[in-house]
Amino acid sequence: MSNAQTNQPDLLPNREKQEVGLRAVLFDMDGVLFDSMPNHAYAWSHAMTQFGLEMTAEEAYLNEGRTGSGTINILAQRFWGRDATEEEKQRIYRAKCEVFNRLPEAKPMPGALEALTAVREKRLSIVLVTGSAQASLLERLETHFPGFFREELMVTGFDVKHGKPHPEPYLMGLEKANCPASLAIVVENAPLGVEAGHAAGIFTLAANTGPLPDQILRDAGADLVLPDMQAVAKWFRSIAPAVLFIFAFSLGSLLTAFT
Ligand code: CA
């Protein structure tokens, strides 16, 4: 693999013959690395009421991964019949963050450290792709997962113009990792995040760590749905090194077969 920056067709002139290796795993953060979604759902629903907007916890889960401003605008459209102004978006997002920051710190997701360790043992790049723009959580990555994340391999809410479900965050993650879509795997937990990974053309593994039914994740385009991050860790551990050198054209079907 020498031609990292070329497009996929040029990269694989003889697709049937050329062996390629999986190179990067792109991890979402909330609901994947941290068990933070109950806090986010609570903070959204409580902050919104101060502004005459209503958001149920279930809706928070369904909108998980969207940028704060995108989420606020959906509610503004519904309750006010117009877009929220930039000033309103900032004020509401600040209120959400204030509620969130008063809650007890979310713990690392059980199995997340094991999954990261398994991925690192396979010598794959680890990329963070999150819609979150909360510095507190990003700093906590180093505390709970020391040495796994590097700033140049992170895409956050500060970087992107379009949040999930737009493919931009994952496309940006691929670019940072200098990796074509066919040689990467996304680990997500939410429907919009799965949609984003799928739209970026990446094999998307969903860990269903929240309350939504598996089918919502499959309908969003998940190539594989596993029940939790422990199962994700086990899945990565079970991939034999040889499986990482497979024919790119059948990456999706082969990986699905190894479950
Ligand atoms: Ca998530």
Structure description:
- The two termini are 26 Å apart.
- Helix content is 44%, strand content 12%.
- The protein is an alpha/beta fold.
- The protein is built from 12 helices and 8 strands.
- Helix 6 runs parallel beside helix 11.
- It folds into 2 domains: 14-36 and 107-257, HAD superfamily/HAD-like (Rossmann fold); 37-102, Putative phosphatase, domain 2 (DNA polymerase, domain 1), CATH 1.10.150.240.
- The structure holds calcium ion.
Would you spell out the secondary-structure blueprint of this structure?
Blueprint: H1 8-11, E1 19-21, E2 24-27, H2 37-49, H3 57-62, H4 68-80, H5 86-102, H6 112-121, E3 125-129, H7 135-144, E4 154-155, H8 168-177, E5 184-188, H9 191-199, E6 203-207, H10 214-219, E7 224-226, H11 229-238, E8 245-247, H12 251-257
Parallel strand pairs: 2-3, 2-5, 3-4, 5-6, 6-7
Antiparallel strand pairs: 1-8
Bound molecules: calcium ion (CA).
Task: List its salient traits.
Rossmann fold; 259 residues; binds calcium ion; 6-stranded parallel β-sheet; two-stranded antiparallel sheet; DNA polymerase, domain 1; alpha/beta
